[in-house]
Structure formats: C-alpha cells, structure tokens
Amino acid sequence: MIDFEPMSPRHLGAIADLVADPEVLRFTRVPDHPDADFPRRWIARYAEGRRDGTREGFAALDEDGAFLGLALAVHVSREDHEAELGYIVAPSARGRGVGSAMLAHLTDWAFATAGMLRAYLMIDVANAASERVAERCGYVREGVLRSVHVKDGIRADTGIWSRLPSDPPPTW
C-alpha cells in the first residue's frame, strides 16, 4: 500500500538524497549538479504549482511512513485537461513494484481528482525500467521524440506514453 502526501519541507532530507542518486540524475530533469538548496526550491516550486493549479508533487510513503519516492504532475493544463506525470523511486524501494504502484495511484489522481482527460509520460528510451512501469500501468507508447533537449545541454531520444480514462484498466 502506498500513501501520497503533498511534497513539503518534511521530506527535504529524503528528497536531497534522491536528487543525489546517479540514476535520478541520468533519467530526470533534475540538474546534473544540483546545489544544496535545489531540494528546497523544488519543493517550493511544487507548492506554488499546487496553489495555481499548474503542477502537483507528492511524496510516496509506505504503510510505516518510510519515503519511497516522488509522484509528480510535472505540468497540468486545466484548460486542455492534460497532465504530464512522472515518478522517481528511491533507490531502496526499486525492484519491488513501487514505481508501478506510484504511477497507478498518480494516474488515478489525475483522472478522478484532477479531472484530466489525458495523462502522459516523457521517458528516456534508455530507461527500460521506467518503460516497463508505463506498460504495466496501461500507458501506450505513442512514439519517440528524437534528440529532445532535456537539461544542461543534454539531448536524448524520449518516448512519449499516454493513457486516457477510457483505456482498459491495466491487468497487473
């Protein structure tokens, strides 16, 4: 069972550890060399997005309250009823189905709570584990955006995956 709570300063230490992980730096938009204040600014950015309706960030916790990672609505367009979603699993929680549980819960939030009509993911094509999570959660790979600017001058081929509320539920 995974619980979500809004990202907050309470999660600062866990988020600082998360953004120091080489896999997180490799496959996310987190800057390659985040400064010490990056986690605090990131939390503040998501708090502002929560207020204006443009993004949402959740800390994913297990039944004992241990930090499992982040579930993010990176961009929310209320006008278009679309949301770019993302998930970052803490190293200690990887390989146990946590990413799939996080994305399933986040997708439910996007459709049921936020009223989205389309949820999509942007996944580096080299991130096979994240692609498996998307597939398990019923996302469909629409195609690949070639050589998309990701961060700090880095370009990567990025798969775009989507899910609609009318899509069949995942069978995992």
Can you tag this structure with a few keywords?
172 residues; alpha+beta; Aminopeptidase; seven-stranded mixed β-sheet; 31% helix; globular
Structure description:
This protein has 172 residues and is an alpha+beta fold. The chain has one domain: Aminopeptidase. The chain is 31% helix and 34% strand. It is built from five helices and seven strands, in the order βαααβββαβαββ. It has helices at residues 12-18, 22-27, 38-52, 98-113, 128-136, and strands spanning 3-6, 56-61, 67-77, 82-89, 118-124, 140-151, 154-163. It has a seven-stranded mixed beta sheet, with helices on both faces. Strand 2 and strand 3 (67-77) form a beta hairpin. Helix 1 packs across helix 3 (38-52). The protein starts with a strand and ends in a 9-residue tail after the last strand.
